[in-house]
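Hey,
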Amino acid sequence: MKTIKMRLKPELLKTASITAAASFVLAALVIALFAVTASTSALVQERGKGWYRARDMVIAGDTMICMRDTACHASRRLALRIPVKKYRFSMMSMRDVAFIEVIPPRDKDTGTVPAQYLGSYRIVASAHRGYLKLWAFKGRIYGSIRFPEWANGVVEPLKGVVISPEGAIRFTRSVTTRKEQVRVGSSSYFTQRYYGRYYRNGKTIRGYYTRNGPRGMWEATKFR
């Protein structure tokens, strides 16, 4: 049997090289343009690996392009607390991404939060009673929520806590990973988005929350 050898013409090789180079340049231009026009910061969990900070993110189809932290951390908490030393350009498939959390910019959304908006509150969300805690650390606002008779009664870290100087508040309570699901005893993943406003100089918060469409009302009263 004769072996058939195929040789690509120099023109085809040249075209393939140009196409590959053009794709890389285009991706670089996209991320550069996005870096100029936006400053989106996010927290990313890579499937089967750890957590890292990312910025200037663009998602096109099945591909995510961003500037990512060169370090990878074992938990969400560490990724948020440890300052980023260096970013590098990254292109990856969305199939390798398990979770993305957008981090709101501090300077535009939070400003200087009055001290009376922070502290411990008793919260009632659609007849479920619990405790809401809000605090500041190094210029960022954090929060936790606990329902003694719901979600195994554990303390749940809140995500994306934003409090404006004018007295508006929003945050997310969610279960989006298997570890969170086991911890709170949830039968499925969920995302609750809370919106509210402060009254009585920060002693009361009233608002609503959404979960897959329907709204529920919530109210919190400060006790400490």
